[in-house]
Write a structure and sequence with these properties.
Length: 175
Amino acid sequence: MNNDSSSSPNRHRAGQLAMGIGALIVAAVLAVGALAIPSDAGYAGVGPDFLPWVVSAALAVCGVMLIREVLTGGYRQMEEPSGAARGDWRALAWVSAGVLLNAALITTIGFILSCSLCFALAVRGLRASEGKPIGDVRQTVKDALIGVAISAPVYWLFTKLLAVNLPGITGSGWI
């Protein structure tokens, strides 16, 4: 019997346990942050603390389920992934960077530009996950313009039709 195969489930269990504990920690931090948000200001009928509470609860449920799975045996008879199913940390890094930059910049540069940046970085990550070249400057500009073409109508729909305030580039304009 190969030593690698006997140590592999324990290695996966430790990682799974770390992910579960990490999800619980992030859920707790998000819940503490949600407590600091005044709930009297509202967005479309719900307070601004609604979404952080939903995400916090979902993360807590996922963390508990991961930890429960570790305690009851860990990953169940799963084959090692191969090829594209194995994933790529670079792809995760690109998509994560897009989401984090979107959250960090949305109030500074506005919804349309921050979502376009998120789209361009996420597409770059998805290309990397498929083993395709991530593209040159022209491709990045093209991806950003497609992001603008998607996010501008979404911005308009939310602000004009649904009367939901989204951060814009200017205080009074629709961009």
